[in-house]
Amino acid sequence: MVQLFSLLDRRPFLWSLFVINFLGTIYGFYWYKNQLAVTDPKLIIFVPDSPTASGFFTLVLLLYLFSRRSPLLEAFASITLFKYGIWAVVMIIWGAVLDSAPFLEALSWQHWMLMVSHLGMAAQAVLYSPYYTFQSREILIVAAWTLLNDAFDYGLDIHPWLAASLEPYDHVVGWFTLILSFTTIILFAIFSLLPSSYRKRELPLLGAGK
Fold first, then answer.
1. Could you tell me the CA-to-CA distances from 190 to 89, 130, 132 in Å, in that order?
2. Which of 44, 85, 124, 146 lies at 20 to 30 Å from 74 by C-alpha?
């Protein structure tokens, strides 16, 4: 385990993850292009959930590479990365189960690609939890944003587009999403309280001098 956490903090590994997340974020926004095109501009910020989450994590990695940190960005990145990573995988599997076609036939190569990439998002959020420096204030801010996002997604029907087989159950999806939000917030609040010698509190805060 010590070797793993040591690897996670090595610059070549951080740069590799930065590039992967940066490219994944760009592709994620491209993936949402059709939904963004028909969304009220005032609500667009609430639509591309997964690429926004990976974008936050990309910034966290960039700060680490330049020996800086932002507890608020860490909280945004970890909580949203895990939530939407798990959410996407569950939605893809759920949609395939409800599809009229056999389960494996209902899953295209894009579904498998999305499941692998979103599981990677969730894994990153957890693996880097010993490094985060956010505390209760940052968690409360991100919790407020996350729950507001859920309210807009399912109150205004701007949630990510669902598979046709899932559309009749969008109200159930909404409740699942809300429960997942609370579960994720509590999980990372617990992570923030666990003792860790890897927390990057020695790094200057973003915007602070050397």
1. 23, 11, 12
2. 44
Q: 176 lies in which domain range?
A: 2-193
How far apart CA 180 and CA 173 sit, in angstroms, is 10
- Give residue 204's region: left, alpha or beta (phi > 0; psi -120 to 50): beta
Question: Tens-digit pLDDT profile for the chain (210 aa)?
Answer: 667 778 899 999 999 999 999 999 999 999 999 999 999 999 999 999 999 999 999 999 999 999 999 999 999 999 999 999 999 999 999 999 999 999 999 999 999 999 999 999 999 999 999 999 999 999 999 999 999 999 999 999 999 999 999 999 999 999 999 999 999 999 999 999 999 999 999 999 987 655
Tokens of 149: 């996002």
The β-bridge partners of 69 are 205
What is the pTM for the complete model shown?
0.94
- Tally the domains of the chain: 1
203, part of any domain: no
Please tell me the distance from the alpha carbon of residue 33 to that of residue 56, in angstroms, as a whole number.
Answer: 19
115 in any annotated domain: yes
